[in-house]
Batch of 4 targets.
Target 1
Amino acid sequence: VAQAKRAIEYGLNFFDTANMYSLGASEEVLGRAVRDFTSRDKVVILPAAPLLAETIRRLHEERSLTDLMVF
């Protein structure tokens, strides 16, 4: 939390995070820092792409199954 607090104090407001970083602990720490040291409307939080990548993978799987006529 101390590092996130310092970043916020220095004016950083863009954070990249993902639940895969430190098994979700990084998101919990960032959430506490935002809650305790700033407000949510003053920061930009970009969840990393694993969710997007998983969605794309599933769409490709579904398309393949449809093409094979087994879906």
Target 2
Amino acid sequence: TSIADVAAKLIELTGINVDMQVDDSRIRKNEQLRVFGCNNKLVSTTGWSPKYSIENSLEDIFQFWYKETNK
């Protein structure tokens, strides 16, 4: 899941149209543009697995703050 994926999901949840742009001046010369992680070792060692998807988590967070700010 990338930051763009998270932003797209939040845009979908809120219904707000956002024009996302990259400011090249803020990217460091030696910036690692792609970072990948793998949870295989954690899963095989502990048996852990996520109970909630990132999409469900974002929706829950959005709903919580929507209710909090519209009381």
Target 3
Amino acid sequence: YAFNTNDSIAPTTPFISTINYSFGVHPTNGEFYIFDAGDFASNGFLKRYSANGTFIKQYTTGINPSRITF
């Protein structure tokens, strides 16, 4: 969920609606990197979203993706 710190009511719609195992946020452009570990026994995925929550691209990773370094 995303909201302004001045908002008095919490939003009811998720900012990004996806199942994830872990995530990272790029420090300069604000892009979100969501990790999906799947079944933890086969390749997972990295899903990339813009700072406003628009899906950009999905990448196949190795087993159990959990962190990113910028």
Target 4
Amino acid sequence: LLASSAASDVYKRQMLLQQLDKSLSKMENSVLRLFLVGCSYNEIAQRLNKSPKAIDNALQRIRKKLKEVSF
């Protein structure tokens, strides 16, 4: 039963990531991947040639979309 529950959790996470990936723009995907590996807003901004405010805005949109696709 425990293994079944763990498999269910993995499946839910995979589905969530797929839904999120489909709803994010190319830039949002880039920002999210850099953020998840530990880059700061300034580092992400430099790598993507964007302003830190644009990165902040992208992460706010990502958080909103994540809430929308959560189940």
